[in-house]
Amino acid sequence: MAKLIDGKAIAATIREEIRVEVRKIEASVGKVPGLATVLVGNRTDSTTYVRMKRKACEEVGIESFHVELPESVSEEELLNCVERFNADPAVHGILVQLPLPKHIDEERILSAISVEKDVDGFHPLNIGRLAMKSRTPRFVPCTPRGCIELLVRSNVNIEGKCAVVLGRSNIVGLPVSLLLLHRNATVIICHSKTQELPSVCRQGDILIAAVGRANMVKRDWIKPGAVVIDVGINSIPDASKKSGYRLVGDVDFDDCKDVCGMITPVPGGTGPMTIAMLLRNCCDSAKEAFGLS
Ligand SMILES: Nc1nc(=O)c2c([nH]1)NC[C@@H]1CN(c3ccc(C(=O)N[C@@H](CCC(=O)O)C(=O)O)cc3)C=[N+]21
């Protein structure tokens, strides 16, 4: 059986580090970091995630500001909401929960968030800075940063290793590939048009699965001893559960668990790390605003 990478425990450690830091910030400037969350519509998954983020803020002493807008909200109204938070000195991070309704131009909204408050790291300028390995980086997207943090805190050597990233999304696959590259991995990015997917994935000393397809990765896709980071959060029907569903990753955990060297579980792997990194980014943003960094 592979060693489990306990994302929940690692995230708890990081949250405790941040809690201590927030207290120090408050002691020195008399103010605390603030995070604004914007939820559009009433998707159950988005509602749950935003609730979890706000609760995590509360636990570490970050003040949270929350706005809920109806599914029918216009792009202009949503932009107004972002502008208000851009101008609010008590807000150091702005998170507009994705996905947004079809009639709204996501890139336009993400571009409107002040670069200094873009704690998701989704602003085109922040992505550009990340891509060019800028000497003045701002925010690194939370899930990719969490993946790297899991590897580092599990003493996984990245330099010189072959890292295979399954998926090329703007929020995970692409940025995590860049971060691995910056740490001198040899990076292979796979996607829906990749041929011979199983054998390409099997090249990876590190495999990051971020496609959003339940249990897609099977044991013959994995190099024996590889470190597997499962970013997928897929809910599948399960009649034995009270809720009627359960969460599984992109990796078929039971099929793969004894071929890999290390693996993250779902839930309890990358999900909690995403939230911990959001708090990290928000705290860093506040320190910058308070002149403490
Ligand atoms: N602007 C924006 N920023 C995001 O960071 C963002 C987003 N939009 N849209 C959706 C995705 C998804 N996401 C997750 C965060 C935490 C868990 C998490 O903590 N999951 C728990 C399980 C939670 C449960 O039980 O439902 C776990 O994996 O252990 C999952 C998914 C953030 N996202």
UniProtKB/TrEMBL annotation:
Q: Which residues form the Tetrahydrofolate dehydrogenase/cyclohydrolase NAD(P)-binding domain?
A: 141-288
Query: Which InterPro entries would you find in this protein's record?
Result: Aminoacid_DH-like_N_sf (IPR046346), NAD(P)-bd_dom_sf (IPR036291), THF_DH/CycHdrlase (IPR000672), THF_DH/CycHdrlase_cat_dom (IPR020630), THF_DH/CycHdrlase_NAD-bd_dom (IPR020631)
Protein's pathway: One-carbon metabolism; tetrahydrofolate interconversion
What chemistry does it catalyse, as a reaction equation? (6R)-5,10-methenyltetrahydrofolate + H2O = (6R)-10-formyltetrahydrofolate + H(+)
Q: Which GO terms describe its biological process?
A: tetrahydrofolate interconversion
Domain of life, source organism: Eukaryota
The EC number(s) given in the record are 1.5.1.5, 3.5.4.9
One annotated Gene Ontology cellular component of this protein: cytosol
Q: Which NCBIfam families match?
A: PRK14186.1
Supply the PANTHER family for this chain.
C-1-TETRAHYDROFOLATE SYNTHASE, CYTOPLASMIC (PTHR48099:SF5), C-1-TETRAHYDROFOLATE SYNTHASE, CYTOPLASMIC-RELATED (PTHR48099)
- Listed name of the protein: Bifunctional 5,10-methylenetetrahydrofolate dehydrogenase / 5,10-methenyltetrahydrofolate cyclohydrolase
Specify the species.
Galdieria sulphuraria (Red alga)
